[in-house]
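Appendix C reproduces, verbatim, an entry submitted by the partner laboratory led by Prof. M.T., so that reviewers can inspect both the input and the predicted structure.
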Amino acid sequence: MEEIILKTTDLTKKYQSRAVVDNLNIEIKKGEIFGLLGPNGAGKSTTLNMICSIVRPTAGAIELFGKNPWKQKKEVLHKLGYIPQELAIHGSLKAWENVELFTSLYGIKGTALREAVEESLEYVGLLERKQELAKNFSGGMKRRLNIACAIGHKPDLLIFDEPTVGIDPQSRNFILEKIKESNRNGATVIYTSHYMEEVEAICTRIAIMDNGKVIACGTSDELKRLVTNGSEEITLEEVFLTLTGKKLRDYAE
């Protein structure tokens, strides 16, 4: 039986009377790269914030590794690495100091901390730049440092929220390859993006959200068959347009 890493049951978040996330039900299995697609305002980031115990749900339930993240927060969050859309790095700190700061929050100390910092920076290709201030990095390097800060404690679940926004193609390809490498090394991944080709290239299953609800979920091929019944060639972008009435790229940046 496949292990369920994340399960939401009727997960709902309301602000006043408006449901930003509306009775969301998803299951993510160990070893998946699970894509979450949707236009701005679809509820993706709010969903991720609830999974990470940043935002408390209005109703419904979340199970992470079979546990309630609100009641067993410390135990659950030690297994979670969150790479937010907004850069969570300090420009006035050196690269290694940024990684050390975030990794130490998980109780890692001494030699283990130093080794974790070195491994994380090497993993994202920044070890030779570890003494440089983060504010002097390029956009792509800052994105890579953002990832290094989230992986020092070796999490089992990595959540990437738009990790390639505003960076060059070379940095984008580097990040996508590292995500696939992390997955091969045992991490389960949740991935959101406005770039359809990224999602299709790396995700094993994809959920399409709109107006706070999941309106379709499956592999890329399953989503295409849902629209065409296998009768014609269609892109994932066209599937999204058919199901939501919106073009995903119209909502990017």
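The chain has nine helices and nine strands. Additional entries are available on request from the coordinating office.
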